[in-house]
Structures are given as C-alpha cells and as structure tokens.
UniProtKB/TrEMBL annotation:
Protein name: PKD domain containing protein
InterPro entries linked to this entry: Delta_60_rpt, Quinoprotein_ADH-like_sf
Entry keyword Iron: no
Region of interest: Disordered: 343-362
Source superkingdom: Bacteria
Keywords per UniProt: Signal
Signal peptide boundaries: 1-24
A Pfam family recorded for this sequence: DUF5122
Length: 417
C-alpha cells in the first residue's frame, strides 16, 4: 500500500513539474514516518552530498563510485552521479554521465534536466569546470549551457524560473568576477552582468558561500558562509538580498547572531539554511565545537524573515557540541541532519546535559517552539547527513553511512508521509 501511495504522489508531481522548476523543499501537512521505504537504491561507498527530484526521477550526487539496486548488491559503477525512479527505486540505466570529480549541488532544471555543481573539471569528456546541465533522460550535456568557474567548486545551487544561482569558493564564472555567488541564465549559462552581491571577507583567505536559500516567491535570497561584508556593509556569515529585480539589493535585514567566534580554525561555522514554505522564516544550522547556551555553535536556529534592521533568533536548539550539516523546513517540522547525538542540549559539552533528548544523526524540531519533536528514527552518525530534501511524498536523506531507521540503507533513504 505504501508503495502505491508513493507512486500516485510521484505521478501527480511529475504532471506539474514541467517548464518551471519548483523549489526543492515543499510544504508537508504532517511529519514523515520514522520507517523508511524499502525500495530505495544504495550508494556503496563515499558520501551522498546532494539530491534533486526532477519529475518522476531522483538524481543523486556525491563522492561515491558504485551504487546498487535495493533487490541486490551487485555493484553498478556510477562515479559521483546517478539517478533512480522515484516510484520503484530502480536505477536509471540511461543516465550515466561521466564526471571526473565530486558533485556537491543539484537543482531541477527545465525540460527534464538537472543542474549539477561540484569539483569536477570535465563532463562527458568536455571541459565544464564546476557547473553543467544534463538531460535526465540520457545524461547528455545541454550543449547550449556554457558556464565554468575559474577555480574551487560549486557548493550550492538554486533556481527561480530561468534564473540559476550558484555559490561556492570560486571568484569568477566565464571570466566575470563574482566572489562566491553569481546569477546565471539557466538556458545559456551566461553570467548576469548586472547582478553582483559584492561579497567580501578581508580578514579571511577567500569568500565562500556554503549554502543559500531562495524564498518561495523567488524574491529574497539568504546566503551563508565565509563572508563578512556585502556592498561594504557588515554581514557576519549571513546576508539577505532582494533578488526580484535586475540587480542584487542588500536587504536592511541584519543579525549579529554569528558575529561571535566558535572554533577559531573555522572560516565559517554556518553549514546550511532553508526557508519555510510560506517564506515567513528561515532556519540555519551550524558546526562550531565550542558548546554553550550563549553560543550559536552546533545549533539550529529560526529567524523571522520580515522586517528591517537587527534580528535575533526566535529560538535556538543546541546539540551540545556536535555538527549539524543539513536542514529542511516543511511547515510541520524542521528536519536537521549531521553527526549530532542529541537535541535540546544547551548545557551539554559532547555530553548529554539536563533536558537533552537522544536524536542520533537526524532529528525533527517543532517550528514554533524550537523543541525536539518525538520523531526519532535514528541514523548511523558517521561524519553526517549532508542532504535532506522534502517532496510531496516524503523526505529524502543522504549521508555517508548505511543505517537509517535501524535498517540497511546505503547512504540514501526516504521517509514517506
């Protein structure tokens, strides 16, 4: 029955997935089940770093080299990128693009395509450093899309219509200077020359956008990472922009929440950000290694997105000294993943402090109260869950371990509604 319900939801999603790519994370009316479905395939090594749903297909990127269908562990070579049928879990045999480096970011593109970002230099034997667009049906490059970073990699992608946003530690795309963040034409890959967020970090080695989130209406963008200024204004590790027009406009929305230091070896301790489905707030997740209730290290935190001037966190949930890498806000829950052992743990120091609850590797937080929800499927912790993506039919989780919900799931699994 569960497989049939998911199949119906997938078909409904495919019917509306046409020319306008949707935001990756969507509203969900309820918390997902703690029992993952049994039919998802497995990555047999490495780490799943990115997941995108393109119609009835799930595209998966990371640092793995081999994958296998659920009904058998016969390895299929798929370095860095593969795809499977969302309804059956069967690996797509026609999608086998050849990349020479890791994939860190994915986003659904137009006409059954997917944008791919990462540390690769060639795609299907053609130079395409850090960025490409591929046919989901065949794995072929979209030859009209020509975009290359100068060095570094692409860590995060976001799409709004024909606008593609790319973030990472690069300093130029197609020879156009863009420190850490750029907007491109989604069909041609041309850099939007009028759009520049002017990110700087004079005290750091380089600017790096670690993650970003677009509001559901596509008008606001929040970027997090190794940055200290935008347009010459102080923006410690987080900046919000109005991206509705031809140019990036720095929002007067600010926060000093991330001005304080965590582990001083880190150029940024922010790791992820996601908007709520209604755009009213966003949630950040961090690493840091210096626990304590007064710090923002190793936390998830909600910020209201409306209004001007200084904003403080609406709530902060502490792990007690363990990193959170990924976040997905669905309205009914805030899902967080990392290598945490606990939530509700402001007094912990790599230990279970007063009031802490066990949430190994993955957990859910009440969006209103900021307290952990009872949902606790567990995950083998490893380095951490690097990708969490909500869909109309469930929640995909990608990581570097093979136990999810107390079952074998090789680095990827899906919790159904």
């Amino acid at each position: 029955m569960r497989r049939r319900l998911i199949a119906a939801a997938v078909l409904a999603l495919a019917a509306v997935a046409g020319a306008m790519p949707a935001q990756a994370d969507v509203a969900q009316p309820t918390i997902v089940s703690a029992d993952p479905v049994d039919f998802t395939p497995h990555a047999l090594d490495g780490t799943v770093r990115a997941i995108a749903v393109v119609g009835p297909t799930v595209v998966v990127g990371g640092t793995f080299s081999s994958v296998a269908n659920e009904n058998g562990l016969r390895p299929i070579r798929r370095p860095y990128l593969f795809a499977f049928d969302a309804k059956t879990g069967v690996i797509r045999t026609n999608f086998a693009p050849a990349l020479d480096g890791a994939v860190y970011a994915l986003a659904a593109g137009p006409n059954n395509s997917v944008y791919v970002g990462g540390a690769f230099r060639t795609v299907n034997g053609v130079a395409s450093r850090g960025l490409t667009r591929l046919s989901v049906a065949s794995g072929a490059r979209a030859t009209a899309f020509k975009a290359e970073i100068n060095w570094g990699d692409v860590r995060t992608l976001a799409v709004n219509g024909q606008r593609l946003y790319a973030g990472g530690p690069f300093s130029a795309i197609n020879g156009v200077n863009r420190a850490g963040l750029a907007r491109l034409d989604g069909l041609t890959g041309a850099v939007d020359t009028g759009f520049d967020t002017r990110l700087t970090a004079p005290s750091l080695a380089r600017v790096r956008v670690e993650d970003m989130a677009l509001s559901p209406d596509g008008r606001r963008l929040v970027a997090v990472g190794a940055l200290t200024h935008a347009f010459g204004q102080v923006r410690n590790q987080l900046a919000m922009f109005d991206v509705s027009g031809p140019r990036a406009v720095l929002s007067t929305w600010t926060t000093d929440a991330f001005a304080g230091a965590c582990d001083r070896s880190l150029d940024t301790y922010l790791r992820g950000v996601d908007f709520s489905p209604d755009g009213a707030y966003f949630v950040t997740v961090t690493t840091g290694a210096l626990p304590g209730p007064a710090r923002m290290c190793d936390t998830a935190a909600r910020f209201e997105s409306a209004g001007a001037g200084l904003h403080r966190a609406t709530w902060v949930n502490h792990t007690g000294g363990n990193t959170l890498f990924s976040v997905s806000v669905t309205g009914s829950a805030v899902y967080v993943g990392g290598h945490q052992q606990w939530l509700d743990n402001p007094r912990g120091d790599k230990s279970k402090g007063p009031g802490a609850v066990d949430r190994p590797g993955i957990g859910a937080i009440n969006p209103k109260t900021g307290k952990a929800l009872p949902w606790n499927p567990t995950r083998a912790r490893g380095v951490g869950a690097r990708s969490i993506v909500a869909t109309p039919y469930g929640l995909y989780v990608g990581s570097d371990t093979d136990k999810l919900g107390k079952e074998y799931h090789g680095r990827i699994g899906m919790f159904p509604l």
